[in-house]
Design brief:
Order of helices and strands: HEEEEEEHEEEEEEEEEEEEEHEEHEEEEE
Shape: elongated
Strand content: over 45%
Largest sheet: 8 strands, mixed
Helix content: under 10%
Radius of gyration: 28 Å
Number of helices: 4
Oligomer: single chain
Distance between the termini: 45 Å
């Protein structure tokens, strides 16, 4: 949840409440469960927890404190800049949040320089709403931003008359809110107006469900449990490759000297790439299924590593594997892909290792490796270079199985690894 969400947005929503000389606009206390959604797949594990509390009003408010049953009570809400709020983010577990701010009774105590008044609230039950699930955010990547877009989501199950929901779009470049709107808790869609988003920018789309546990009759409040799902949107035009699926059972090594390495890892890998893919599932030989996690826009990766071949074979035995993808809402089963019964490629390694240790990154370099001596008719060699700064692919290309070297031109790259 963005720090300024409540204070920057809700100020325009609520009216003023008078007491003595001060005018109070609204009060809030929240315990929030955050989710990060990748692709169109529903998030299942929270990415963090947040506690927030605050008071918004005119400049007659001179002090505000929060009392609760936790060890930090009472908490001075003044930030020294005329705002009265606390925003504690990045809790990695609900237990840590509950230790600092336990469920139970809370009170916001407000002073206007003449008199003080307390507003009691209760937050109990750990009644976080179900994680919001955005159904079609991936379509925004290829959407004409000059046209309206209907954002879809799964229903807010269990909502009652006091609960609320809102949609927010945050501009990550300017660190400002681009769009905000409350929606009915029965709604499952919202029209994002044309030109609300701009090309070549980074946005965060958020959908929040609120279970209000306490409210007052004479002051506008937002008090209770929040569940929010956020989706990162990059509107920079991108060139996407054709959809592809890879299924592999193999071995890997870590070369540390000029000597030929020995196997250090036995793995299983499923990779699927497609801009219109919303979910990917691996189907094992016994027909059991395993979801392939999303790993970025249109990218899905399931990678399992084992210290022994027996352990790998127990989890992912030989046999026929299939991959089910959902593309543009349509299920497609690819395969079967026979895994096992063949001969593994020889272990690849760099044969001019010593020379590679003194590479001048500003000069071309002839990388050499051993022969792919048992290559079949459809075999290929892949060479990858990983950028040491951002851990992303600086170079990734395929060669015929008969090649034993390549001329590389690169800068600030780790030593590449050939794959057979």
């Amino acid at each position: 949840m963005k720090k300024s969400l409540i204070l920057c947005t809700l100020l325009a929503v609520f009216g003023l409440q008078n007491f003595a000389y001060a005018e109070i606009e609204f009060l809030y206390i929240l315990k929030e469960e955050e989710y990060r959604q990748v692709g169109n797949v529903a998030p299942t594990v929270p990415s963090g927890w947040v506690f927030g509390a605050g008071v918004a009003g005119d400049d007659q408010i001179s002090a505000a404190t929060l009392t609760h049953s936790g060890p930090s009570s009472p908490v001075n809400l003044s930030d020294g800049e005329g705002n009265f709020e606390i925003d504690v983010q990045d809790y990695t577990a609900q237990s840590f949040l509950d230790t600092d701010y336990p469920n139970g009774n809370f009170s916001l105590n407000i002073t206007d320089g003449v008199e003080s008044e307390s507003y009691p609230f209760t937050i109990t039950g750990d009644a976080y709403p179900t994680a919001p699930h955005l159904l079609n955010p991936m379509a925004l990547h290829s959407h004409d931003l000059g046209q309206d877009f209907t954002l879809l989501w799964a229903p807010f199950t269990g909502a009652d008359a006091s609960d609320e929901a809102f949609v927010q779009i945050w501009d990550n470049v300017s660190d400002d809110e681009a769009f905000f709107a409350f929606v009915d808790t029965s709604a499952t869609s919202f029209l994002i107006p044309e030109d609300s988003l701009s090309p070549n920018k980074s946005y965060e789309i958020g959908l929040t469900f609120i279970n209000e546990t306490s409210e007052l009759q004479n002051v506008d409040t937002k008090v209770g449990y929040f569940s929010s799902t956020y989706f990162e949107l990059d509107t920079t035009p991108q060139n996407f490759e054709d959809p592809s699926v890879l299924v592999s059972r193999g071995i890997s090594t870590n070369q540390t000297s000029a000597a030929a390495p020995t196997p250090s890892n036995y793995g299983f890998l499923v990779e699927a790439n497609g801009v219109e893919f919303s979910s990917v599932t691996a189907i094992k030989p016994d027909t059991s299924e395993e979801p392939v996690p999303a790993d970025g826009f249109g990218e899905f990766d399931l990678e399992a590593d084992f210290v022994s071949e027996a352990a790998r074979n127990s989890a992912y035995p030989e046999g026929n594997y299939s991959v089910r993808v959902v593309e543009n809402g349509q299920e497609i089963v690819l395969g079967p892909f026979p895994m096992g019964g063949g001969t593994l490629p020889v272990i690849p390694y760099i044969t001019n290792w010593d020379a590679a240790q003194t590479i001048d990154p500003n000069q071309d370099f002839d990388l050499a490796w051993n022969s792919f001596s048992n290559a079949g008719s459809n075999a290929l060699i892949e060479v990858e270079i990983w950028n040491a700064n951002d851990q992303d692919n600086a170079v990734d290309f395929l060669l015929s199985s008969g090649e034993t070297g390549a001329l590389l031109t690169f800068e600030n790259a780790k030593l590449p690894q050939p794959f057979f």
